Structure formats: structure tokens, C-alpha cells
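Exercise 7b. C-alpha cells:
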């Protein structure tokens, strides 16, 4: 199957990065520096999440592409999405799920830094393992410094600013947190709706196949994050963070790479776009279920996390 050509406005990527940055800023405004103290004594949670993210997910994704009969573009898009770090929205979803938001943000920061070299390494390596994608993939030129700068601006900068405001002006932080939490998510939802509308015909033509592929792929990612956390023996609230972090890929980053490195190849772009749409649905669903899953270790001191 070959995907239909799609419409993409490159200028909208900047808007989406701005929205993602505002989400991180909003979450950071409700977190204190002391919330990160527990993370220093929980390296196995970070290691478990990053192992699932950068080792297990690309490997299982490649196996999935080897046992399916899809176009090279779709399979290459799946490998690209699997090679991306966790999305910034995962921090907000973890927050809603009553998981360990500080751990989620730390995992996102660590995976984003690692992605500057792990993304191209994973992408190139696993795309060569699959004969179909290897034929399509002659070379890749991901600018690591530009990628790092983008992630730095979208993730690290708003995180630092939010923590600084929380430390310096706590009375300002809470109302600002409430405003950003609402407005940033509304804008993000609007962005997705507009993207789907502009590419409605392409989405319709590919919907059944793309939906099934993304549904299975996303379920594998969540299962990996959940299994990694459980295998590491961490608390339920930490398992929530690893599950969501691995399950919610930075598909907007994948879309940017598709249009800058592959001239908007239709199969890759549609898979990334479907991922970006579906993982919001699955993420909010997971958050709803997880918010009713109580921690199994309520006697331990836990970082403050408020959804107010």
C-alpha cells in the first residue's frame, strides 16, 4: 500500500513546539526542587524506562515490521517513531494519572538528551535490519546539534523557568499553572483537529490500516513501559511514569524529521501523524485508568503533585 500525498505547513511545527513548551512550563510550575530528591535514590526506575525506550521498543518495532506486509514508508515511519524520545505531553498525562511527575520529567529530560545520538543510531541501525526499509533508506543526515537545541528549547528551558518561578514566586506559580494547564491543552487539541481536517482525504484513505498499525504499535510501547517498571520492582506511581513515558513518543519530532530529511514522504508522515493523534487518546485513557490505581506504598514520603 502506498499512502496518499499529504499537506503539511512547516510553520506549524514552531507553534506545536511552543505549545509543548507551555505544557512543560505549566507542569513545572507545580513542582518543587525537593520533588527531585527521591529520583536520586531511584536510578533503577530511570534505567528501566530508558532501556524500554531506547533498546526494547526499536527492537520489537523492527520485528513487527518484518512480520507485516506494509509499504517501506510506513515501516520506516514506525521505526522512526520508535527511535524518538518520550513526548513532553507524557509529563502532563503522568500528572493526570497521579503518577510520579518528577520521575516522568526526569525521564523525558534524560531521554531527550540521549536522543541527540541514540535517535540517529537506532534509526539507521534498525532500518538496515529490515530489507524493505534498507532499500528505501540510502542515507540519513540528522543534525544532532540542531535536534538537541530544539529539545533543549522545548523541554529544558521551560522546565528550568517553571522551577525558578516556583522557587522565587510561589504565589504567582499556582494561578499561572492553572492557566497554562488549560490553555496549552486546548491549543494542542485544536492543532491536532486542524491537522486532521487538512489531511482528511489522506486520513480516510489510509485510516483502517494506519489505525490498526498504530493501535498495535502504541499498545506494545505501553506494555514495554509497564513491564519494565514492574520488572524493576518500583512503586505503582513510578510504574505509571515509565508506562506513559515509553507509550507516548515524541511524534511531532518524528514529523519534523520526515519533512526535513525525507521531503515529507507520505507513509512516514501519516504514521507519525496518526501516532500524534492516537497517543493523545490512549494517553488520556491510560491516565483515567491509572488515576484510580492507588500506590502500593503509601507509607513512603512522596513528592507533592497537585492537579489543581
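Sequence design result:
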Amino acid at each position: 500500500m502506498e499512502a496518499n500525498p499529504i499537506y503539511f505547513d512547516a510553520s506549524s511545527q514552531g507553534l506545536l513546539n511552543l505549545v509543548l513548551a507551555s505544557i512543560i512550563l505549566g507542569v513545572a510550575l507545580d513542582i518543587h526542587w525537593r520533588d527531585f530528591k527521591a529520583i536520586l535514590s531511584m536510578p533503577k526506575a530511570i534505567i528501566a524506562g530508558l532501556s524500554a525506550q531506547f533498546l526494547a521498543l526499536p527492537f520489537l518495532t523492527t520485528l513487527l515490521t518484518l512480520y507485516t506486509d506494509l509499504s517501506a514508508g510506513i515501516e520506516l515511519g514506525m521505526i522512526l517513531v520508535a527511535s524518538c524520545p518520550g513526548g513532553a505531553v507524557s509529563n502532563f498525562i503522568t500528572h493526570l494519572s497521579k503518577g510520579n511527575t518528577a520521575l516522568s520529567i526526569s525521564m523525558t529530560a534524560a531521554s531527550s538528551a540521549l536522543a541527540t545520538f541514540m535517535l540517529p543510531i537506532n534509526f539507521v541501525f534498525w532500518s538496515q535490519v529490515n530489507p524493505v526499509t534498507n532499500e528505501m533508506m540510502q542515507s540519513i543526515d540528522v543534525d544532532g546539534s540542531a535536534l538537541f537545541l530544539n529539545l533543549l528549547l522545548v523541554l529544558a528551558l521551560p522546565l528550568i523557568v517553571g522551577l525558578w518561578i516556583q522557587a522565587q514566586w510561589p504565589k504567582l506559580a499556582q494561578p499561572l499553572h492553572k492557566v497554562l494547564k488549560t490553555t496549552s491543552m486546548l491549543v494542542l487539541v485544536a492543532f491536532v483537529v486542524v491537522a486532521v481536517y487538512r489531511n482528511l482525504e489522506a486520513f480516510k484513505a489510509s485510516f483502517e490500516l494506519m489505525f490498526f498499525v498504530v493501535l498495535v504499535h502504541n499498545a506494545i510501547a505501553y506494555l514495554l513501559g509497564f513491564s519494565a517498571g514492574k520488572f524493576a520492582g518500583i512503586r505503582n506511581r513510578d510504574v505509571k511514569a515509565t508506562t506513559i513515558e515509553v507509550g507516548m513518543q515524541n511524534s511531532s519530532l518524528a514529523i519534523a524529521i520526515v519533512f526535513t530529511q525525507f521531503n515529507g514522504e507520505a507513509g512516514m508522515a501519516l504514521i507519525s501523524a496518526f501516532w500524534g493523534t492516537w497517543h493523545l487518546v490512549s494517553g488520556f485513557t491510560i491516565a483515567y485508568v491509572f488515576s484510580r490505581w492507588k500506590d502500593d506504598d503509601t507509607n513512603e514520603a512522596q513528592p507533592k503533585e497537585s492537579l489543581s
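Instructor comment: Residues 11-290 form a domain with the Na+/H+ antiporter like fold fold (CATH 1.20.1530.20). The CA atoms of residues 1 and 28 lie 43 Å apart.
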